[in-house]
């Protein structure tokens, strides 16, 4: 099952510039992630998903004096909030970019070998609270869903221009939505009458399909998986994750650690499979009698099973309910 973020159900304030995001954004699994990364005085780290800088501040407090951190975020509004949060830290280098360009960003800013790398995937509460982005079911703006302005592809464009088969594949593959086919069919019918422009319109379409197939109301919004699938497609989230993991591995010192916090099974599986592959010497198909790949072990898995949030954290921060932390160490 995919992880559901409870913040999707809050009624966000109409605020397109959430510059105070760090005041209400709670980093997930912060204590656990910091504990596993083991930041020490003089250490160098990379936070690939800067957000409100919650994790970044905790790392900086442990590596200073003498240490430094590189923070990356594609979202210009989040970056502005992070700069405000980190204004008193001269050892923090902040960059607006996609973390899929990690190697290039790190080398440009003299972070060629580091002690630890963190990726906290998914949405922040600040992004959900911004009506203009269209991430929340209750947002009053358009269906944008871009983390940054890196491309012209938006959720609205996908809904109104993609073929029915393409919509079905997005909903099925990225949302694991059982009703992907009838929902895709309904969207194509509705957009012939008028373009689908708002989250409320999309929720109404999905809800109508759910009522036909299910008698009882779901505890979560029926459009949850559709919104997630569209966001993943718009931002190429799984492609980005697949590209950044080997780059992160190449930047780690021996003994350096990588920690990844994911929020749904597609992300978690990507991380799990990468860690598993890099933790063994041979990755040849089992039917081959002798190794032909020449692959050498590069990682030691630290968390045999993913670390989940404790009950107390879930109560204080519902976003942590579906979070999973995996950690590995460079050999």
Tags for this entry?
globular; 331 residues; disordered N terminus; alpha/beta; seven-stranded mixed β-sheet; Rossmann fold; 2 domains; single chain; DNA polymerase, domain 1; 13% strand
What does this structure look like?
- The chain has 331 residues and is α/β, with parallel strands linked by helices.
- The protein has two domains: 6-126 and 237-330, Vaccinia Virus protein VP39 (Rossmann fold, 3-Layer(aba) Sandwich), CATH 3.40.50; 151-235, Orthogonal Bundle (DNA polymerase, domain 1).
- Helices cover 42% and strands 13% of the residues.
- The chain has 14 helices and seven strands.
- The protein has helices at residues 21-24, 30-37, 54-63, 76-85, 102-108, 125-129, 155-161, 164-175, 180-193, 199-213, 224-235, 237-251, 265-278, 311-316; strands at 44-47, 68-73, 92-96, 114-120, 252-262, 299-301, 324-330.
- The chain has a seven-stranded mixed beta sheet with strand order 3-2-1-4-5-7-6, sandwiched between helices.
- α8 packs across α11 (224-235), α9 (180-193) packs across α10 (199-213) and α12 (237-251) runs parallel beside α13 (265-278).
- The longest helix is centred in the middle third of the chain and has 15 residues, at 199-213.
- The radius of gyration is 21 Å and the shape is globular.
- Residues 1-24 have low confidence and may be disordered.
Question: What would a concise description of this structure say?
Answer:
The protein is an alpha/beta fold.
Total helical segments? 14
Listing every helix as H and every strand as E from the N terminus to the C terminus, the arrangement reads HHEHEHEHEHHHHHHHEHEHE
Assign the structural class, choosing from mainly alpha, mainly beta, alpha/beta, alpha+beta, or little secondary structure.
alpha/beta
Q: In CATH's first tier, which class of the largest domain applies?
A: Alpha Beta
Strand order of the largest sheet: 3-2-1-4-5-7-6
Number of strands: 7
Mean pLDDT, to the nearest integer, reads 87
Helix content: 40-55%
CATH topology (level 3) name of the largest domain = Rossmann fold
What Rg, in angstroms, do the CA atoms define?
A: 21 Å
Going by CATH, the homologous superfamily of the largest domain would be Vaccinia Virus protein VP39
Low-confidence stretches: 1-24
**How would the global form be characterised?**
globular
Second CATH tier, the architecture of the largest domain: 3-Layer(aba) Sandwich
Through-space gap between termini = 33 Å
Number of structurally distinct domains:
2
**Main pleated-sheet profile:** 7 strands, mixed
Strand composition percent: 5-15%
